Amino acid sequence: MTNVDACELNPEECRQINVVGTENTFRAAIAVSAHFQLLSTDFVFDGVKGNYSEEDEAGPLSSYAQSKVDAEDLLLKGNYSNYSVVRTIIVYGNGINLSRSNLFLWAKDALPKGESMNIVDDQFRAPTWADDLAWGCIRICELNETVSVEELEKGVGELETRQLSSIHKQHYNKAKKFHAPPSRFNPNEYTAEDWMLLGLSEKQTNVVLKFAKRGIKNNDQLKQIFVIDDALFQLIKDSTFYPETHPNNTEYGKQYTDKPIVKIELNTATAEELVTLPGIGDYYAKNIIEYREKLGGYTAKEQLLELYRFDEIKLSKIRNNIDLNTDEIRRICINTCTTQELAKHPYISWNVANSIVKMRGNVQKYTDLEQLLKSELIDKDLLEKIRPYLTLN
């Protein structure tokens, strides 16, 4: 749903289409191990800063923009790295009945007739030719990695099937420079800084750290990580070791010790306390508290990775500085709650919430959380994820 005015008039319909719809198709992509691509928008930004990069914090000002930010967050929170987000700006093309959605055709039709055109005068935006956008989307899927706007501008070539003007006409030529590791190392223990010293970008590093978190057992598994370029793999393959081979890992590699600046209990910390943590400013402190309230409390430090733009690097800087007390986690009683109350939880979609409430009508009263597995929408992974936030009474 892309009509901004319609989204403002029908925010719930907008959320169902742009957020819940994304969630459902994302799950389908995961089920078949497909690359998932989300078409988002430049409206995720508030326009205050001016020129933006992919890493800048979002500032949605409309229901439409918020729905796209929420959809992006779904992907960031998921434990699936084979996806990409493409933020588009005023897409135009050449087709039938596009006079109002294509600024150029609109002007071409209106001006010769002497018709007036009502347009905004407070925005400076760069229209995107649809063929260029399509090429870029395909290229990103082929690369299977994050590609910046600058890289796409280098990558969009001449479109031979169209003679219309394109603003992107340079050949893709992204150079990669990798470095050999200084010593033998266990990929499961390498820090973000270590991987980046080898030549990986910050985003590529985050992908590797996600795999390392689950455990990399051998070089075959390491090679299968899609951000590990073959050139890099050839440089590091003879320098790696794994716990099965070298149980005494301390004799290899570097040792890191973090000196805590301050110990903070995450579920009771105030914004003033959170900003004393390394790398946590007012923005992240506010988001940590807001998300804590939505969740009902944190049950694991890794949940911070579900925050917008909060990555493994930020977590590694504060991991030893935070404690968790889960005694006061706010739980939802599945025997008395409404669908709306359940659906407010970040981990529970409206469809899942509705399923839980409807099944309750069949059994009269839940006696075990395991009964939720009878829903086609709830698997063991989801149940374990939401279990800390549910109660029977």
UniProtKB/TrEMBL annotation:
InterPro entries xrefs: dTDP_dehydrorham_reduct, NAD(P)-bd_dom_sf, RmlD-like-bd, RuvA_2-like
Native source species: Ancylostoma ceylanicum
Protein name stated in the entry: Methionine adenosyltransferase 2 subunit beta
Pathway: Amino-acid biosynthesis; S-adenosyl-L-methionine biosynthesis; S-adenosyl-L-methionine from L-methionine: step 1/1
Membership in a protein family: Belongs to the dTDP-4-dehydrorhamnose reductase family. MAT2B subfamily.
UniProt-listed Pfam families: HHH_3, RmlD_sub_bind
Subunit structure: Heterotrimer; composed of a catalytic MAT2A homodimer that binds one regulatory MAT2B chain. Heterohexamer; composed of a central, catalytic MAT2A homotetramer flanked on either side by a regulatory MAT2B chain. NADP binding increases the affinity for MAT2A.
Gene3D superfamilies noted in UniProt: AF1531-like domain, NAD(P)-binding Rossmann-like Domain, Photosystem II 12 kDa extrinsic protein
